[in-house]
Design goal:
There is one protein chain. The chain is mainly alpha-helical. It has helices at about 5-15, 25-30, 30-45, 55-70. The termini are far apart.
Length: about 90
């Protein structure tokens, strides 16, 4: 066989390798998260109205405002003194 035909065979095998399912176990579980979420909603469709312990609206708004403000005026950089190394 010539080098050209060997190259064509190797390239063809390389292309075919892209079609092989590397993780078939992932394909078997495809969609389980969506199914679980749908089952939870069907089990309790009013779940969003349940009171839960967490953050209230005012605190959430202030948190988001501070987060967005941190991009407009970021805090000054911190000077780090490295002992025994160079920066």
């Amino acid at each position: 066989m010539s080098k050209k035909s060997i190259g064509v065979i190797v390239a063809g095998l390389g292309l075919l390798a892209g079609c092989v399912a590397i993780h078939p176990e992932v394909d078997q579980r495809h969609g389980q998260a969506v199914t679980a979420a749908m089952e939870a909603q069907v089990f309790n469709p009013q779940a969003s109205r349940n009171a839960v312990a967490g953050i209230d609206g005012k605190a959430a708004k202030e948190t988001m405002d501070r987060y967005l403000e941190s991009f407009k005026s970021p805090p000054p950089p911190i000077t780090v003194i490295s002992v025994g190394g160079t920066l």
